[in-house]
Amino acid sequence: MAGTTENAPVTVTVTGAAGQIGYALLFRIASGDMLGPDTPVRLRLLEIPQAVKAAEGTAMELADCAFPTLESVDIFDDARKAFDGVGVALLVGARPRGPGMERGDLLEANGGIFGPQGEAINAGAASDVRVLVVGNPANTNALIAASHAPDVPADRFTAMTRLDHNRALSQLATKTGMPVSAIRRMTIWGNHSATQYPDVFQATIGGRPAPEVLDQHWVEHTFIPTVARRGAAIIEARGASSAASAANAAIDHVRTWVHGTPEGDWTSAAIVSDGSYGVPEGLVSSYPVVSREGRWEIVQGLELNEFSRARIDASIAELVDERDAVRDLGLL
Ligand SMILES: NC(=O)C1=CN([C@@H]2O[C@H](COP(=O)(O)OP(=O)(O)OC[C@H]3O[C@@H](n4cnc5c(N)ncnc54)[C@H](O)[C@@H]3O)[C@@H](O)[C@H]2O)C=CC1
Ligand SMILES: O=C([O-])CC(=O)C(=O)O
């Protein structure tokens, strides 16, 4: 199946492969969008037993695309087998929220999935494994997975806030009439939840500081709530949670992690805190990050005004509450 690709193959495990995001994600991974056209991909799909047949259908369609980068597809209902040799683990499989729910309401329903998957990653992953948690509540699920993988360095576990980041770029582009590519240094801080803080104070738009271009009232009362509540607005409109845009953000996250951020810009990712910017060490929080030589680094030395500090602190407080809740549930 593999064509004229040059690099060593990478094993990519996707959980929840028969779900909505899985269907939007797998074809892009297989086509080379995530790791590049020169890297063959060995896909391993993990599903619950009832959804294995649907995953088999997706595998048939993957075969029918005849992607030169797709070396193999295997389907499992056993996490240990699915994560054997994994280089990139995309933990998508989890229940989505419905109308009227916050993502934190899913803690109890979904938290139990991530401990066993962390253990399976610990047991079988490649030494340079990269893990992205998409299933909600993503930050705290990543914390659970990392805490069950003591032999895997904590910086290998991340959660997705790239969708929030992309939503913020899009809102700013629409508001200012500038192309998305003219907006730099946007940051999402904190939790992938309604408390997240989309920070424009460090951003530039067309080379000018964003606060000079934007009206503070619009930032506070329209922009921030629009970005932070976009997931709920999509659920309201579609009757189902974001899928294609979530898959796209997952592709962006891993591609940036592997291939690096462009000079002069950064992105947002939830990573295990080293204590930077007052986030308690060990919490999985979104930060401004660059990727250099395949590792995330937090952008240091940013000055935070009082408004930003208060917003970040509120999101951190929620992450602390979520951590305490999963500890009480015995999931950590
Ligand atoms: N971090 C982010 O930005 C975003 C996160 N999400 C979250 O992603 C998750 C998945 O969303 P959808 O694909 O729309 O849901 P879905 O319900 O369409 O698919 C979920 C799939 O996961 C599978 N699954 C459940 N438990 C599993 C387990 N233990 N192992 C393997 N597979 C398992 C289910 O059988 C199902 O096929 C949800 O938690 C959703 O809230 C969604 C959008 C954005
Ligand atoms: O809002 C949800 O539940 C799904 C999600 O995480 C998003 O779209 O950001």
TrEMBL record:
One Pfam family linked to the record: Ldh_1_C
Residue intervals of the Lactate/malate dehydrogenase C-terminal domain: 161-324
Class of enzymatic activity (EC top level): oxidoreductase
Location of the Lactate/malate dehydrogenase N-terminal domain: 11-150
Family annotation (InterPro entries): L-lactate/malate_DH, Lactate/malate_DH_C, Lactate/malate_DH_N, Lactate_DH/Glyco_Ohase_4_C, Malate_DH_AS, Malate_DH_type2, NAD(P)-bd_dom_sf
Chain positions recorded as substrate binding sites: R97, R103, N136, R167
One GO molecular-function entry: L-malate dehydrogenase (NAD+) activity
CDD domains the record matches: MDH_chloroplast-like
EC number, as in UniProt: 1.1.1.37
Catalysed transformations (reactions): (S)-malate + NAD(+) = oxaloacetate + NADH + H(+)
Residues given in the record as NAD(+) binding sites: G16, A17, A18, G19, Q20, I21, G22, N110, Q117, V134, G135, N136
Catalytic residue positions: H192 (proton acceptor)
Protein keywords: NAD, Oxidoreductase, Tricarboxylic acid cycle
Keyword NAD applies: yes
GO BP annotation list: malate metabolic process; tricarboxylic acid cycle
Function comment: Catalyzes the reversible oxidation of malate to oxaloacetate.
HAMAP family cross-referenced by the UniProt entry: Malate_dehydrog_2
Family membership noted in the UniProt record: Belongs to the LDH/MDH superfamily. MDH type 2 family.
Protein name (database record): Malate dehydrogenase
Organism: Actinotalea fermentans
Gene coding for it: mdh
